[in-house]
Amino acid sequence: MAYETPITIAEVMKNISADKYVLPSIQREYVWDTDQIETLFDSLMRDYPIGTFLFWEINKEHVNDYDFYGFIRNYHEKKFVHNKKINLKGSDGVTAVLDGQQRLTSIYLGLKGTYAYKLKYLARNNENAYPVRKLHLNLLSSPEDSNNEYDFKFLSEKEVQNDQNTYWFEVGKILDMQEDGDVSIFVSDNISYSEEFHYTREQSRFAINALSKLYNVINKAGMISYYRERTVALDKVLNIFIRVNSGGTKLSYSDLLLSIASAQWETHDAREEITDFVDDVNAIGDGFRINKDFVLKTALVLSDFSNIAFKVDNFNKQNMMKIESRWDDIKKAIKQAVLLVSSYGYSGETLTSNNALIPIAYYLMKIGMPDNFVDSGTTKANREKIKKWLIRSMLKKVFSGQPDNVLRPIRDILRVNGTNDFPTDQIMDKFKGTNKSIQFTDDDIDEYLLKLKYGKSETLSTLMLLYPSLDFSNKFHEDHIYPKSKFTKSYLRKMNVAEDKLDEYIDSVNDISNLQLLAAQLNEEKLATDFSKWFNEQYLTESDKIQYRTINYMPDMDYTYENYSDFIKRRRKLLKDQLIKILI
After folding, report:
1. 416 CB burial (10 A radius; 0-12, 13-18, 19+)
2. How far is CA 384 from CA 349, 374, 412, 464, in A?
3. Please, are residues 183 and 210 in contact by the beta-carbon 8 Å criterion?
4. pLDDT in tens, 30-49
5. 517 DSSP assignment
6. SS (H, E, C) 133-167
7. pTM of the entire structure?
């Protein structure tokens, strides 16, 4: 292969729009965020190299031999994250992108598409949480808080309208400019140095230079340097694909494996089946974050293959046929495992290792995946055993490093003991004394669990141990007992806290000793109310007070700010005593 004559970005965009450039099913899905796209456009403007591209030319005789997918035209974090299969019947031939999908998709979204990602503090099911954004360029100045020279930003229409101090140019409109003079006309009509527009001479000069540069890199310069491969041999293409994707962002084999599976499965389309299943499972509860790699890995374990390494050799014809024959059971086992873990209060944000789901799914498959396992009274004690093992495993991070060395022995234990209750004790014994042990010592409790802070996933796991009776089908919040918002020096002084105690108070407000699990509605009502006031107004009788203190490991004392240090010490002792009962 040799370099072809470079082509313009505008020409590539036109070919993508016309489905002349497509993606082979071996390509992984789009993963770039808006910061990466903005930096890519800055690199284009500064004449930085953006790498070469590898195109696979397929003539019309072979275009229907493989599955191909279109580029994402409008990315939406909730609705549109998957490439759609494309029908090329009647096509005269296409160019498949073997290397460069992420960059070309990013350029397309910046010039012709949109990008919608979730606002941080809004719920996933709130449609307003995903404002549609287009890429814009600040035509007045460089960014103030970035290493980039040009200020590119994905902005919603509302954000553009509300920003009266910046002239945001919609980047895609550069494609409408046909001649160099169109740039000058645009600046003259909109940003010229005059009293009418209130722009300075420097701003006008910056605008014409920036817009001229953008016009040149998109419409005139040959910015896309590429190799072209014309072979029709799929094995050669796969080899090339793996080689060129072996650096940079680690290649996920899942789409490559799904491409192989699609060709080998007889009754299912593997890529669509697994992609749809991932979306379905990730919508459970507060949302999970499993991916295709996880599903394929779990399929290896649940199909009882001796070699469960995630590599191409294990996805041969024989293995793929066995996975397909068990596919319905594999799906059901994974989904039940996620439903169970969700019932414990976990979500994608707090489950620190998806691999911990695999032994649970294997166990559920061994016992026949009863439909009522997650909520039946007869399985409650067994669910508690699984929860005990899961929390210990999360806290001890046993699936970090090389998870296969944990998954294989656990599967062996489940294979022998899996028809009874979940064998937590046997698993603990198996790893006793190793670096994968889930046993705890006094030091583990003192130096690890009792030093956890608000917001850490391990903190939630520890609180789950301390609140075993809570029904997590209801929503619970990790609540600061003494409200964090009140821990300012000015307010603490008003509460008669000594000056030499202020830093100590502020430093410890996020400690686990100042945290409790509180029903969501109750927490929203509590908000920033001083704890002493809230406690006495919420629990009016002495028996109510005693019950609350017992459930939440609270010392019996006056909950003033002056007593906060003593409260933390005494509650820490109560938490430690309980953790010793549970873990040692």
Report:
1. exposed
2. 22, 11, 21, 11
3. no
4. 889 999 999 999 999 999 98
5. E
6. EEEEEECCCCCCCCCCCCCEEEECHHHHHHCCCCC
7. 0.62
